[in-house]
Every structure is written in C-alpha cells, then in structure tokens.
Design goal:
Elements: E1 3-9, H1 18-28, E2 36-41, E3 47-53, E4 66-67, E5 73-80, H2 83-90, H3 100-111, E6 121-129, E7 134-139, E8 148-152, E9 155-159, H4 176-185, E10 199-200, E11 205-210, E12 213-218, H5 232-250, E13 257-260, H6 265-278, E14 283-288, H7 298-308, E15 311-316, H8 319-333, H9 342-352, E16 358-360, H10 365-369, H11 373-389, H12 401-404, H13 415-421, H14 430-438, H15 458-462
Parallel strand pairs: 13-14, 13-16, 14-15
Antiparallel strand pairs: 1-3, 1-9, 2-3, 4-5, 5-6, 6-7, 7-11, 8-9, 8-10, 11-12
C-alpha cells in the first residue's frame, strides 16, 4: 500500500503553510510507504500533493507525485491490474515509465472521468487537472483502498487515513450519526465516519473540487441479471476460469508475491492457484492459536502447503502478543472495525513483511457467494413464506427449500441469532426483515443512552 494526501484551496488562492501541511501529512502516513516519499506544490501554491511509496511496479521510475508533462499531476495508491493492456491501447511509445500510475494519467487525458470505466483494480487517487482547475479524486468500485476528506476554512484536505486529516480540524469530536450507524451495522453509512467533519469517499464514487465547491457522485453500481439458461456445470467451469484469470493478473508485480493462508476455502483456493502458477519460491503465511486446538486451523494450512509444494511461515499468536500489539492495531485502524480479525491479521502481516511486500488473500468470498449464516437464515424464511403462500413454483428462484434444508445444520451454533431474528415479526417487508438480521444494536439496551444520540435513524439511511 501507499499513502496519499492532497490539499486544495477551494478559492484557488495560495494555501497558507502548504509545504509544512504536506510534510505533516506525509509523516503521519510514513508507515504506508517505506520505499520513498515525495511532494508536489502547484506553481501558484493553490494545491499540493504528498505521497509515501511502497514500490510494487516499476521500481526505478514510478516515483510520485507524477506528472504527464502537461500540468496534470497525480498521487495514487493501489494497483491497476490491466495496466499492461491499457498501456498498449493508449500507445506505449508515448510513455516515459512502465508504471501503472502513468497509465491513469494517460487514461484521464484520453477519456476524462470516463477513464474509471477502463480501470480494473484497487485504487484511490487525487488528480489535478490544470486546464479545468479541478481536483479529481476517485476510489475503486468496492472501496478496497481508503480515501477520506475534510473541508476547513475553504481548504480541502484529502488523505488515505483519518489521522492525516486530524491536525487540520478545529476539534476532534465524535460524529453521533456515524456512531449510531456503527452501533447498528459496525460501519458507517453514506460516507460518514466516526469523526465529525471528516467524510469517507464511498466505494465506486468520485469527488470533484471545482468552481469553489466539492461534490461527490457515484460512477459504478452493482447490477446483475439472473441467468437461468445455463447448467450448474457451466457456472462451475466459468467461476473456475474467472478465479484463475483473476489470480493471474493479481500476480503482476515487480516484486515477489505471497499469500495469506488461513486454512479456509477462500484463501486456500487463491494461494493454491497462485503457488501453482508461480512455481518454486512461493511463500504462504498463517497464524495459529496453539493454546487451544479449537482455535488452531494451521493444520489445514500445512496440508495445503504440502499438496501445492510451497513454503509456509507460521506465527503462534499469544495473549502477550495481544497486550504488546493492540495499541498499534488501534492506532493504524483510526477507529473500530467489525470483528476481532484485525489483531491476528496484524500479527500475520508483521511476519509476512519480513519476506514479502505483496500478499494475496481470500477476503470477500463470503460476501460474493453468500457464505454468512445470516444469508442462509434470510433465504430460509423467504422459502418458508413462499411454501405457505404457494408461490414457490410461480417463477424461477435461485434458492429453494430443496436446496436450503440440507444446509440447515450449519445454523446449529446460531440459535441465539435465530431467536433474535424471530423475536418480533415474521414475513414482514424484505427491508425490515433483512435489517433485523444485520442490526447489531438490537441487543444493546441499557448500555447505550440512545436519547443522547439524537433522532437520526440508521434504518432510514439503510433503506
């Protein structure tokens, strides 16, 4: 990962103390980029960029901030996986580097804001358009790379982490609506954060600062059309081909690539394919809690490593590790995240950093393939409703009770969730039912002074 920051005077007048501001932001982001740093200041002092680099592609000439030689500049964090193809399409002879950073600059020069529809990857960037006197910021479709911003006294500040913005806000205070969102969903909705006055650019959105104002808009949304014309065998083969191709382009790197290996299906599939493709020298990394066999899945990771012939590095995580590391984990997160996984992830990443800069992982598999118990519960209720109403066979359905019932054994450990879900109401509006299923605040009563958080309704925003 890299660290990026930007400052713009919305009035297009010189920014007071611009260089010290960029220097402070770069220092606060230094952990994101140990391989280099840079800043750019507009000739009139109206804007500036900062960058901390973790070099992955084009180690020699990919330094940032980068210019296209026409007055446009970029500071960028991420990787464009189809940069090789885009470079050829845009005219490789025009490039002065082999970096994916320059691909974004050239793509913007060719297609403007529509360049985002051509980019395949994870990214967050700020790009200064000199002709239009516009700051153009964008975040990838699923928000893999972070981007935050705040406006204080007509100054727009943008950064990879909230901590790089806090020196510029008048006071560090909690955003009560964001806090209410967090209690409900364990994350904030609609670009809010837990810090008052600090916004998060949502996934699949752009931020435009021009004509004295700031606006955000969506450039991408998930759309799908159920396909009932192909067989299960077709979908299995298609998924296999897509995963293989995705792993291949994710291994485009000028430094060695490794993988997280938890022992679960998702990371095992990714690591297995990556090791098979790379061959000798591939390394995997896993963490274990050997104090209790119930929490130690490292045997599965070792089985995978043996079967695919790669080297597996392990870290045995202890209570002392938690005590010694949790302060660092909290500092780097900036605010709470759902679940306890950030701590073991920190420990495994710390181990991996001694061997590899880039790791592949299996995160997102449960979201894509509906692997969480709450999805099964929601499907189960709707199947019961359809069976009672006699509508089960009135059309095509992706999930039926014939496919649900054999899988209900996986809910054995989720009886409290089932009880809470059916405690009040049954067969209500779909939005209400799903909200009840994901609402984490339902069990919080006397612990929270709800009246102190105001009338804001997370459910209304959720709808």
């Amino acid at each position: 990962m890299c660290g990026i920051a930007a400052v713009l005077n919305l009035s297009l007048a010189p920014v007071p103390h611009l260089r010290p501001a960029l220097g402070a932001m770069n220092r606060l982001l230094q952990h994101r980029g140990p391989d280099g740093e840079g800043t750019w200041v507009h000739p009139r002092g109206v804007a500036g960029f900062a960058h901390r680099r973790l070099s992955i592609i084009d180690l020699a000439t990919g330094q940032q901030p980068m210019t296209d030689g026409r007055g446009n500049w970029i500071t960028y964090n991420g990787e464009i996986y189809n940069y090789v193809e885009l470079r050829a399409e845009l005219g490789a002879q025009e490039f002065v580097t082999t970096s994916d950073t320059e691909v974004i600059l050239r793509a913007y020069a060719r297609w403007g804001a529509d360049c985002l529809t051509h980019l395949r990857g994870m990214f967050a960037f700020a790009l200064w358009d000199e002709d239009r006197q516009t700051l153009f910021c964008a975040r990838d479709r699923f928000g893999i790379k972070p981007l935050y911003y705040t406006v204080v006294d007509r100054m727009l500040y943008v950064a990879s982490e909230v901590k790089a913005l806090l020196p510029f806000v008048p006071e560090v205070e909690t955003d009560l609506e964001g806090f209410k969102d967090y209690l409900t969903f364990q994350f904030c909705l609609s670009g809010k954060t837990l810090f008052r006055g600090v916004g998060e650019l949502p996934p699949g959105h752009v931020l435009l600062a021009r004509n004295g104002g700031v606006e955000t808009r969506r450039y991408w949304e998930v759309y799908y059309h159920p396909d009932f014309d192909h067989t299960a065998k077709y979908f299995e083969e298609r998924i296999r081909a897509l995963i293989q191709e995705s792993v291949a382009v994710h291994q485009r790197s000028d430094v060695p690539v490794g993988a997280y290996v938890s022992g679960g299906l998702d990371s095992s599939i990714v690591a297995g394919l990556a090791a098979e493709r790379q061959g000798p020298g591939f390394k995997g990394f896993t963490g274990k809690f050997s104090l209790d066999p119930a929490y130690d899945e490292s045997a599965y990771a070792r089985d995978l490593a043996r079967s695919r012939g790669f080297e597996l590095h392990e870290v045995d995580i202890t209570a002392d590790d938690f005590v010694g590391s949790i302060e660092k984990v909290i500092y780097h997160l900036d605010y709470p995240v759902a679940g306890p996984g950030s701590f073991p992830q920190f420990m495994v990443s710390q181990l991996a950093s001694r061997h590899r800069k880039v790791l592949l992982g299996g995160q997102g598999g449960d979201e894509v393939f509906g692997g969480y118990a709450r999805y099964l519960i929601a499907y189960f209720e709707q199947c019961i409703k359809a069976a009672i109403d006699g509508t089960m066979h009135s059309g095509n359905f992706i999930v039926t009770y014939e496919s649900i019932i054999p899988n209900l054994g996986s809910l054995r450990e989720y009886k409290p969730l089932l009880q809470e879900f059916w405690r009040e109401g049954l067969f209500e509006d779909l939005d209400q039912r799903y909200f009840r299923l994901i609402n984490r605040a339902g069990v919080l009563r006397e612990e929270i002074k709800w009246e102190a958080l105001g009338p804001y309704s997370p459910y209304a925003t959720f709808q």
